[in-house]
Amino acid sequence: MRRLKGSLALVLLGAxxxxxxxxxxxxxxWLDRQLSPDVRARxxxxxxxxxxxxxxxxxxxxSVTPGSPYRPPRQARMGSAGYVPGIARLGIAxxxxxxxxxxxxxxxxxxxVYRERTALPSGLATAASWNPSLAERGGAMIGAEARxxxxxxxxxPGADLVREVRGGRDFEYASEDxxxxxxxxxxxxxxIQSQHVIAVLKHFAFNDQxxxxxxxxxxxxxxxxxxxxxxxxxxAIEQGHPGALMxxxxxxxxxxxxxxxxxxxxxxxxxxxxxGYVMSDWGATHSTxxxxxxxxxxxxxxxxxxxxxxxxxxxxxxxxxxxxxxxTLDEMDERILRSMFAVGVVDHPIDPEAHIxxxxxxxxxxxxxxxxxxxLKNAAGILPLARTVRRVAVIGGHADxxxxxxxxxxxxxPVGGNAVPGLGPQGWPGPRVYLPxxxxxxxxxxxxxxxxxxxxxxxxAHAQQLAKWADRVVVFAxxxxxxxxxxSLRLRGQQNQLxxxxxxxxxxxxxxxxTGGPVLMPWLARVAGVLEAWFPGSGGGTAIARVxxxxxxPSGHLPVSFPASSRELAFPQLPGAAxxxxxxxxxxxxxxxxxxxxxxxxxxGLKPLYPFGYGLSYTRFAYSGLSAALEHGRLVxxxxxxxxxxxxxxxxxxxYVGPLAGGWEAPRRLAGWHKVELAPxxxxxVSVTVDPRLLAVFDGAKHRWVRAAGRYVLWLGDxxxxxVRSVRITLPAWQHPARWPxxxxxxxxxxxxxx
Length: 755
Ligand code: BGC
Fold this sequence. Notes:
Blueprint: H1 6-23, H2 37-47, H3 50-56, E1 60-62, E2 80-84, E3 95-98, E4 116-117, H4 123-128, H5 132-148, E5 153-154, H6 178-193, E6 198-204, E7 217-219, H7 222-227, H8 229-240, E8 244-247, E9 251-252, E10 255-256, H9 261-271, E11 277-280, H10 289-294, H11 302-305, H12 313-320, H13 326-343, H14 358-372, E12 374-378, E13 391-395, E14 403-404, E15 413-414, E16 434-435, H15 439-446, E17 451-455, H16 460-469, E18 472-479, H17 495-505, E19 509-515, E20 529-532, H18 540-548, E21 586-588, H19 598-603, E22 621-631, E23 634-643, E24 649-651, E25 654-659, E26 669-673, E27 676-678, E28 683-690, E29 697-699, E30 704-707, E31 710-719, E32 722-731, E33 734-737
Parallel strand pairs: 3-5, 4-15, 5-6, 6-8, 7-9, 7-21, 8-11, 13-17, 13-18, 18-19, 19-20
Antiparallel strand pairs: 1-2, 2-3, 9-10, 12-20, 14-16, 22-23, 23-28, 24-27, 25-26, 25-31, 29-30, 30-33, 31-32
Bound molecules: beta-D-glucopyranose.
């Protein structure tokens, strides 16, 4: 539980003090790497003065905001999200904090400082690869760039479910499914922390839309929350062991998340046994005592973003008059220090002078995007574009200059600068940044024999002329999305008209979408091909060109359902959109419960435009030999995948599960998957082990995961709506306490006690 039992602490301290001396860390035993992070943290806190304890829980903004008298401490990295001073006399490093989950970002507030760094494709793109090893490599890449930029805390990844497909930050998240989200976010965390940089999992929790993000109150039955949004966080924490977690702006159940005892105390600490620290989002703290007692360990950038600084002097007063106990303050510090030791922040000082190999890093981003691109439509095999094609018209989307990225705190300023400066809002959450890896140039490299012509698409008649000239037309359509504002499903401006007009004069038209999330496609029947490239990251142009021309097989599958219209969404109108100012409102997630995304469509018998899990390939796969068995209490599913086409490619076979008798939030849930790369004719037998929680419901009254005895169906398919095989299995009743047994190691990812 949150407040450690004193006796346990003393036993551990006693045992480890000897070890420390044995290792010769004389005078500063907490610097002894032989000791566990828990013990090191406790020893360090014992040596700290109260001023020092108060210092570690108080974060500064790292940037100068135009017009504000605030100046960050001199030691802060200018243009950064945050800074927490260290304690030099104890050998405790400062925390230099940078956004975010897609790369090292620079705060727009500091217009004089830009760090040019490598951007990963959006979170949805990485999740669309269904390849956790890519997410881990990407995490390691941005973690290494963070270190080399002088940062040891990275504010990402995000693991909110895509409950709201118009959410302005969906591009930072992974998916609409808790398993896919937990696995991909967990992998990214492992990657970031492999570089001794603390990953901050955010935004906890139900921070599912930008409209009214600082005021809305998410209402959901606890059990449904545990089976959906919270399960995504739970799995990400288990798989990644993030050093820190960021509580979000919104309220849940009537209470602000950063002072929400249910979220922070009962679920995070109690049930999940989380032992990292909790930091607030920038401006998400609303109290001193309530927050400290609920479990907020560090107040971020409070003197700039909070109504007033709630920690610092205010917390000192609360400790002095006993409203917050010394023991509570100690534990807040212990949690911060514990993660600093566990991840290696103290033992492996950052090196801001380290060399960054931008070419190698761009290759990581490119590989990620290449597997994240989803082929949605391929009529009459228009793709891959034949290398014998002679005339190619490329239209729109600044495809001659670069690829789009999302806006807000996660925006990475690219190496080489913004390829299309001057677009979009100059202030927050702009500017609109294009990464200078242009698809047009990369396409020319793929087909040296062909002639390419480019039109911006602003003049539709001119674009049509070009389309008539060409054998093949590739239209790029963009939908910028950004933090703090939600987005429409309709492509902006005249892009829909442009696509329809071009396709009307040349049926060999392919559309490449660079969007934050799903968009409507009124022209779909008229075009021959559609690729969803998301926000493609620093290697995006090359990845798109390679997939278009078949140098790479498209193997991405949708991590979100694409709706046919907003009418079929759980909330046809965006909640709160009609309200003026910053009026508080509630969002009744009870309407949907745990039936998020494909589960919503299937429980309501609705058909989306493209279902979750969907994605085409240039080759074909066949599946056989589906079997399911309980092995050591775990459900294991096996099957064989064969590449029956003529090209190499990667399949993403997905296993879904549901009780024959029904009774869940939806007929079926994603139970697992296995991405398999296969040469033509090759086959592989793979297995998927199903997490028992995915076969159970959360019983709020019993506070347990409960599986009913009975028959369950397992479906094997290549999307949530297309199955090639199914098998039934009878399972006995099973239950398990809400607290899941997590086995924490002692390595960089943490060493948590279950006690
Ligand atoms: C965002 C966070 C971000 C923080 C620091 C907030 O506005 O919600 O995701 O990490 O700012 O820039």
